[in-house]
Specification:
About 45% of the residues lie in helices and about 15% in strands. It has about 110 residues and is an alpha+beta fold. The chain has a single domain (about 20-110), classed as 3-Layer(aba) Sandwich (Glutaredoxin). A hairpin with a 2-residue loop joins strand 3 and strand 4. The N and C termini lie far apart (about 40 Å).
């Protein structure tokens, strides 16, 4: 009986540890320090997905709101940059449209995914 309880507890701990959200604060700060920006809109579901990937670390991302109705909107900058879809990442002066896996953002930016 003790063995079964031990096995059940061990499996539970392994499952729960795999569900823990990774902290991407250092990665997000590196992106911002390297002048990377994400252009998006408050109503954009792909932007929401991208933000969710970063979790609380998204607060360190240089985010530009392109819809004039959004908070701290800067549609003029989005127009000047030629943003045509959301999200769009600007990394090293190059625009990359679409939702990006974090490992791809890491490769494009040179920021380690820690």
């Amino acid at each position: 009986m003790k063995n079964i309880l031990f096995i059940a507890i061990t499996i539970s701990l392994l499952v729960l540890s795999g569900c823990a959200k990774k902290d991407y604060t250092t990665f997000a700060q590196c992106l911002t320090e390297n002048n990377a920006s994400m252009y998006g809109a408050y109503w954009c579901s792909h932007c929401a997905n991208q933000k969710k990937e970063f979790g609380s670390a998204f607060m360190y991302i240089n985010y530009v709101e392109c819809d004039a109705k959004g908070a701290k909107a800067n549609p003029a900058l989005c127009e000047e940059k030629g943003i045509q879809g959301y999200p769009t990442w600007e990394i090293h002066g190059i625009l990359f449209p679409g939702e990006m896996p974090l490992d791809k953002l890491s490769g494009l930016s040179g920021c380690p995914l820690s």
